[in-house]
Amino acid sequence: MRSPHTTEVCGVRILDQSPIDIINIYRPPIRATNDEREDRFDPRCLPVNRQTLLVGDVNAHHPAWDRNCDLEDAVGDRLDCWLEDVGWSPLNSGDPTLISYRTGGQSAPDLAACGPELAVRTRWSLGPDLGSDHLPMVIEIRGVSDPPQRRRKTRWAHHRADWKKFSDSCEEALREAPPEELSTQQLYTRFSTALQTASKAHIPKGARRDPKPWALHPEVQRAVEERRAARREVHDPESKARWLEAKRRAAEVTERVTQQSYRDFVSTELNQSTSVGRVSRLLKKWEGAEDDEQRDGEAMRVGNRLLVTAEEKANAFAHQYATVSRQVRAPKIDRATRRRTQQFDHYNCADCQNARTGCCSPFSEEELVLAIQRTQLRKSPGPDNITPEMIKHLGPVARGALLKAINRSWKTGEVPREWRAATIVPIPKANKDKKLLANYRPIALTSCNSWNANCERRPGS
Known about the structure:
Elements: E1 8-14, E2 20-26, E3 52-57, H1 74-86, E4 89-90, E5 98-99, E6 106-107, E7 110-114, H2 116-119, E8 122-126, E9 137-141, E10 155-156, H3 163-174, H4 184-202, E11 205-206, H5 218-232, H6 237-268, H7 276-287, E12 300-302, E13 305-307, H8 310-324, H9 331-343, H10 365-374, H11 388-392, H12 396-412, H13 417-420, E14 423-428, E15 440-445, H14 452-457
Parallel strand pairs: 2-3
Antiparallel strand pairs: 1-2, 3-7, 4-7, 5-6, 8-9, 10-11, 12-13, 14-15
Helix pairs in contact: 3-4, 3-12, 4-12, 5-6
């Protein structure tokens, strides 16, 4: 909540090859009559350097940034003198940024200013009407080099998949029986290649950010467009009244559609069997609360070091997890483990006496089908990029190819490299500072085709 008695200032530093400091300021207005507050605003207290950008609602008017102002006020004159002393200039074009609710007058009490070195790389414009009496100022700053484009990770759009063609494609690719001399790795590579080829052809991918549940409602879009059009046409008391009416109507429509969408959400999504975490994320998104994602470019801290780039963060996470892992790779220990493993070739099983019966027998197709039925859907894939939805829509030939690879691994003890690899994803702990590396826990995404779950469900294994 803004204070009516004091100037508020906050700052943020954008870390890049040339860091930029953005100072956001709000100075409450002091009326000319019936206002006993004393104005002590002094711009000389603000930080100034070549890479500083000053923006905010200063409630000051001067012809330098307000074309509708014929005579500057005291604070506007004070700011203009300070800008001249430090060698800065306003970025505003002079267009009004405010329409008064009381009088309908248009003015520019909002200011954006910086030094000449930053000004040549900066472009000022007005943003769209967001429902306030102020219009947002949009300031674009060109970097010294082209910034890396943010690329959201693409995901399989299973709801748009052509599962019939996907299944037929897998059946056709795996119909021919493989040679008996193929190893476990070769059998699984053949299977996964067929699935990935069919997936690229018949399952689309996307990386679109999910909008708020009500934002794309046609009635809300029409009301917002009418409000923006009415604001652009404000020039007299009658047009001002039309704008205020359109603004009120847009707020009412948004509130009504939001409530209806929330009731629909409660009666559908919340009544289904789902995880508490998913419901919590949906509610946070609905309320516009802060989510648990780490923003691109948001700095992290490890000891006295500040991590900015994605590569620095990834290396720090890898080092952190390697130091706490119980399976740290050590060549000397690995060689001893391999020697002990080779001795198992001559080991007699106490349960079946190497006859491969009972719990040591090959897995049956019924066991595989049961395991597929029990697999949870809507899970992130492992390094092989194969999801449970793909496995669920396999035909009998493709299931047989997967079963052959699983049984070959069960018999020989050879594990395909895709089953031994994992994608480590750092998840922030609840209510912890996301800038600290220690406040993340690792989640390992493994292949959904691993036979560990089948072994655990088999009695005696």
